[in-house]
Design a protein that fits this description.
- The protein is built from eight helices and no strands.
- By secondary structure, the protein is mostly helical.
- It has one domain.
- Helix 5 crosses helix 6 and helix 6 packs antiparallel against helix 7.
- It is elongated and about 60 Å long.
- The two termini are 22 Å apart.
Length: 161
């Protein structure tokens, strides 16, 4: 019990960061549930990307990647998106390997922003995910009421926590 009391005492100043981390994890969990529950993930991915391509909405240099790599391999990319979003959700909710989860969330949010041609200077859902991921990457977010606190004490040289 002493170890648990020490962890709360040492990370109490990080509680606002923990609240934001957990709320962000909840948002990622909600979006990952869509992919987990989808009967045909590849079809869902294709149905979301194709109208955006037809409207010319994705960033111009990103469109060929979507047309020639993502859509022909939609099964692989749907599985990667599902696994990535689920990993980010678990990582942020539990505070486990939070910095790695933050890097994955930044990568996903960057790709989603390119898909919707969103600027990183204008607040939108995807850019908010990106900048929150950046915050969790540079700050010890997982050490605030998360498993990373104990992992960092055990293996302090590993940068994931």
């Amino acid at each position: 019990m002493q170890f648990l009391r020490d962890s709360v005492r040492e990370s109490i100043y990080l509680w606002p960061l923990a609240v934001v981390r957990i709320l962000s994890g909840h948002m990622w969990a909600r979006t990952s549930l869509f992919w987990i529950r989808a009967e045909d993930r590849a079809a869902s991915l294709t149905n979301q990307v194709t109208p955006l391509l037809e409207s010319g909405r994705p960033t111009s240099w990103y469109q060929p990647f979507l047309e020639h790599v993502v859509l022909p391999n939609s099964e692989i990319f749907a599985a990667l998106v599902t696994a990535g979003e689920a990993f980010v959700a678990v990582s942020l909710l539990l505070g486990v390997a939070t910095r790695l989860g933050a890097a994955v969330s930044m990568w996903l949010a960057l790709n989603y922003s390119l898909l919707y041609d969103q600027s990183f200077l204008i607040a939108s859902g995807n850019t908010t995910y990106f900048w929150m991921g950046f915050l969790f990457l540079v700050a010890p977010a997982g050490r605030a009421f998360g498993v990373d606190y104990w992992l960092h004490r055990r293996w302090p040289r590993i940068p994931c926590w």
